[in-house]
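call fold(seq) -> tokens
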Amino acid sequence: MNNHFFGQIASRGSRAGSWVLQAAALALIIAMALPARATGDRIVKSQVAPIYPAISMRMGITGEVLVRAVVDANGRVKSATAVSGDPSLRIAAENAVLRWRFTPGEGDSALMVGVNFEIPN
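ret:
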């Protein structure tokens, strides 16, 4: 086999990989624009902003913390555990999500929500 053949395969794989990456980025953007939901259409009814840790703000740490929340049948958050994000922001994100309220549903639901930290201007 010649190198031209393998070059064409690598080129096609690169384009396919690029398309997959673009599709994943688009899906992420769409998901971030939608309200938090879980199975059974558990929608955020009230959302409490996190208290920005002073040290994190002084250091310019920003970003999203992904939190796994367990919501009871009445829409109250039973537990909140940060699964990603800057370690200095995780406790503040968990504490905020514990005060969120969701639409009622049948039984407990587990869902992932994002808590954004941006330094105000």
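Residues 5-11, 24-40 have pLDDT under 50 and may be disordered.
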